[in-house]
Design brief:
Distance between the termini: 20 Å
Helix content: 25-40%
Shape: globular
Mean pLDDT: 90
Radius of gyration: 20 Å
Order of helices and strands: EEEHEHEHHHEHEHEEHEEEHH
Structural class: alpha/beta
CATH superfamily of the largest domain: P-loop containing nucleotide triphosphate hydrolases
Number of helices: 10
Strand order of the largest sheet: 5-6-7-3-8-9
Number of strands: 12
């Protein structure tokens, strides 16, 4: 479990981030962290992984504070950054050096992921393409079976077949005792995987809701479907036509368009939060 209370981080006396931010994340879920560049996503991930220290407030991961960098925390954390810099080693040598740091590492899972990603196990990491390096690192991170797995833009650098492979692997790789946090701009790559949505802007959490609850409260329609005007909360012209987001007064289940939800939340956060009976912005 991640428990953040009254978090404040400062880059300088003039620049304050997370001025009293609160956030909880539960095991067994895949969280999608969405926000524009500069919204505070990277700072939040670095605080959670212990790479940055909070100026005020607390951050606990399974009762441990990340900034203390205790062994019990580090062996249950794996962080996959957007840019993966791997040493000039053969995969088997990399495995021999780094796998022992993770008590729950599964060699069988790692080999299965490599096979599914079409990466030969005798490959030299420095000779792989960027996309292949990323897939090898993702395979290692999943096989580590840590209780916290953080991925920053995991599908950047992956071609279309690799994105399909990634989604297939992720759909069965998550564990009931594990928190997976995915930060992404490429929402459509990951929307089927995400079980809970966190939308940030200007270092604030504008929305944090389970997808099941979003489906209960909101409906999404295209221009060919009948939409009652007074039910529309937000509409947007897309390449595929007009898309409207409405209150789900008819209790129908529609596909959740996370891009539209994201744009609607940034456009009018108070209105969107009111749909979920919570108008307090952190």
């Amino acid at each position: 479990m991640i428990n953040i209370k009254n978090l404040t981080y400062r880059y300088s006396k003039q620049k304050v981030l997370f001025n009293g931010l609160d956030l909880e994340m539960q095991a067994g879920k895949i969280y999608g962290l969405l926000g524009k560049n500069g919204a505070g996503k990277s700072t939040l991930m670095k605080t959670i992984t212990g790479l940055l220290f909070p100026f005020e407030g607390t951050c606990y991961i399974n009762s441990l504070q990340p900034h203390q960098r205790q062994v019990g925390f580090l062996e249950q954390l794996f962080f996959i950054p957007e840019e993966c810099y791997l040493p000039p080693l053969r995969i088997d040598r990399f495995l021999a050096i780094y796998a022992p740091f993770y008590p729950s590492f599964s060699y069988a899972d790692f080999n299965d992921y490599l096979k599914e990603f079409n990466i030969p196990p005798d490959s030299k990491l420095h000779q792989l393409s960027f996309g292949q390096k990323k897939k090898a690192f993702i395979a290692f991170g999943l096989a580590a079976n840590t209780r916290l797995l953080v991925m920053d833009e995991p599908t950047n650098g992956l071609d279309i077949p690799s994105k399909v492979q990634f989604r297939n692997i992720m759909s069965r790789a998550s564990k009931p005792d594990q928190i997976i946090l995915l930060s992404t701009h490429q929402v459509r790559d990951l929307d089927d995987l995400i079980s809970s949505v966190i939308i940030m802007d200007d270092s604030r959490i504008l929305l944090h809701e389970e997808k099941d609850r979003i489906a209960e409260q909101l409906s999404f329609y295209n221009q060919q479907q009948a939409v009652v005007k007074n039910e529309i909360l937000y509409e947007e012209q897309t390449p595929n036509g007009l898309v409207a987001m409405c209150r789900n007064l008819r209790h129908t289940v529609t596909y959740i368009d996370l891009e539209i939800l994201f744009n609607a939340t940034l456009s009018n956060p108070a209105l969107i939060r009111s749909v979920f009976n919570d108008t307090i912005l952190h």
